[in-house]
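Q: What does the assembled structure look like for these inputs?
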Amino acid sequence: MAKKERVLVLGNQACVEGAIYAGMRFYAGYPITPSTEVAEGCARELPKIGGRFIQMEDEIGSIAAVIGASVAGLKSMTATSGPGYSLMVENIGYAYMTETPCVIVNVQRGGPSTGLPTKVSQSDTMQAQWGPHGDYTAITVAPSTILETVTETIRAFNLAERFRTPVTVLLDEVMGHSRQIISLPEPGEIEIFNRVKPTVSPEEYLPFEITENYVTPMPAYGEGYRYVITGLTHDQKGFTTNKPEEIAPKLHKLRHKIIDYKDEITKLRAEMMDDAEIAFISYGSVSRAALQATDIARKVGVKVGCLQLQTIWPFPDKEIAEICGGCRKVIVGELNMGQIVNYVRSALPGDIEVVPLQRYDGEILTPMQLIEKLEEVL
Amino acid sequence: MATAVKEKQKSNVVLDYLRPGKAMPTVWCAGCGHGIVMNGIIRAIDKTGLSKDEIVMASGIGCSSRMPIYLDFNALHTTHGRSLAFATGVKFARPELKVMVVTGDGDALAIGGNHFIHACRRNIDITCILLNNYIYGMTGGQGSPTTPSQAFSTTTPYDNAEKHFEPTKLAIAAGASYVARTTVYHAPQMEKLILNGLLHRGFSLIEVISNCHTYFGRLNRQGDAVKMINDFKERSVPIARAKSMSAEELEGKIVTGLLHKKETTEFCDVYQSVVDRVQKGM
Ligand SMILES: Cc1ncc(C[n+]2csc(CCOP(=O)(O)OP(=O)(O)O)c2C)c(N)n1
Ligand code: SF4
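A:
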């Protein structure tokens, strides 16, 4: 096999590469730092492959257009940062309710409000699960390297199509704006999942059918299956309902189609965890520092490991408990005031001490800071 | 006898387009103008010869926005104010579909005002039917951006201190290439204007003045549905005649007909030509 070409890729561009690889053919967005290069990349690349790019009037319109394009049959995506994500949440809720696959990239910056446009943060981690009102279960993935930004964006599309749901890709300013030399995946190297289409006749088709495995085929507009898509709570035919016996099963489906299949969604990267007594638990750009800190500490004989959550939501509690079961302590590093730390705490038995390490001044957690914390708790 | 048969056939056309299943009855009050508009839309669509599969009808939230649920097209009942943005995604993704939007004055001009002006500006090929009843019907009679100054609503209980929008002027200024107005009294005109809007390539706005006798009528002592619809008739002036009338003479009047039409490029077409050019490496 010919050696793969090595290229220098910006994080935000890696996201575009992954999306296109996954089959994205529609992008709608509104410029916002530090995500703008995703939009610019899509504006450049999509016409070349017959795809469509549109700069909408705001983020509310962007996610609306993305959902519209998805029901019309195209894999679609938008990218934004905190203020834009906040504007999107009502329509992201619509995507949950209508079970519309789409991908939302949040290149996080400091908040609340306009916050720190050019500085790193992970303070939207909770928002990725709890942004829109109502009950639903979110899927959120979080890469920590440029190559992972490609592969996790592909995975986000696959999950969105597989589970008929919006999926959030959590990046951050450092992820979006750093460059690494990588080899992009070759065509065919990574499996691509496309939404299941109905095989029954339009008369028999139930657009929101609650099947045994919760997979509900989804036709595109224009393919002969005319039905109602509404954000109002609906029955299996798509008709609005106020009946308790139809409401509860719909909400049950939104949750269980995800959590019952968590094994397909959860992905973690465990490095040197086998004999680890202490573990760093982190995600996104912090995991880069955590891996370096682990390497450094291992060199001087400290039994430390590094656990990166590539899936943040649904929270991989069972897996964390399994992987960290032999640890005495875990250090949870986050660029916020503590968003997953309590989830980690409740995932682990009480005798494993959970130590938070938080930074929320717009700067990254450095390997040295992680090592300092490690020394403190040794 | 012959007319009776003809009438029967006519009404069957409407039945043909109602969504099978449990969509009915509608949420609309008896006599609500929105039902008359639905009738007009069906008749216009029937004349286009388009198949039901080709038609996407998007809407936001409001009494008016319930319409797509009742009709046998691809229905996209979205969030309040956002239907034009959703519809933009549908149309841009699949330009071969005929995309319509049904919206209310609050939906299109208050919460959705930004999407409205930008859909006009892009001149994207969407047929937008704005059911203007001067009030928020669904939420029980609050003031809207088209509530006239001094009119009453539950949120303007003493007087409306605000000024109102004229949606057609807004649309023309923003770049829409087909703009028309009619009322629920003028059923044949409504059908014709909607049909021509559907046939027009570009953004078309058809504003239909509709009666919410339940709230606007009651709060402003305008009487029942019949009285309100009659009032629309009394106050209407065809555009040809309006042209020779002064501003004072037109005060309180509803100018009806095709107000604006411009042949210009359409967004999806232009984007496609860009795609073609880029793909040829130019
Ligand atoms: C974000 C949001 N805000 C408020 C509402 C409540 N709401 C529902 S319909 C409506 C007004 C609808 O008025 P209009 O568009 O004029 O339609 P009509 O009911 O008069 O036909 C409002 C304010 C909502 N559904 N969503
Ligand atoms: S409240 Fe007004 S707008 Fe709504 S259905 Fe009744 S009459 Fe029509």
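The first helix of chain B runs from residue 2 to 16.
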